[in-house]
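User: I'll paste a sequence; please echo it back and then give the predicted structure.

Assistant: Echoing your sequence first, then the prediction.
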Amino acid sequence: MSSASDFDFLIGDWNIANEKLVERFAGSSEWQHFDASTSCRKILNGAGNLDEMTLPGSDFVGLSLRVFNPVDGQWSIHWVDNDRHRVLEPMVGRFEGGVGLFYGGEEHAGRAVLARFRWNASTDSPRWEQAFSDDGGETWETNWVMNFSPRR
């Protein structure tokens, strides 16, 4: 069962190896690779967490706010960055067996698509994947992967 401690594996300072699909919904297999770092901390007396991601040599900053709802046992994940300057629609879901699945809406090339986040909870090397579907969830294309390693 999902709980407010589901994201405890992410608390701390991390280096992130990013792999981002260069072209979405085009059958592309070309990936852009770049590094980032983040620091994650608990908020709201443990009912949520907040992290801020930065890219070396860039002024980009992104922020994730995650809040657990004990009534329905689901998390809401909110994202905002200094490129889009707005809080995006939340991704909502839960963890089961160390894997978190979260769903919500996203926009790609001016059209609405379904988005899925998949978190593999690991205290040593967490992994986040983003996938989009333009056919209502029948098929998914993974377009972004983040592999986390502890910052020392």
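The first strand starts at residue 12 and ends at 21. Strands lie at 12-21, 31-43, 48-54, 61-69, 74-81, 91-96, 99-108, 111-120, 127-133, 141-150.
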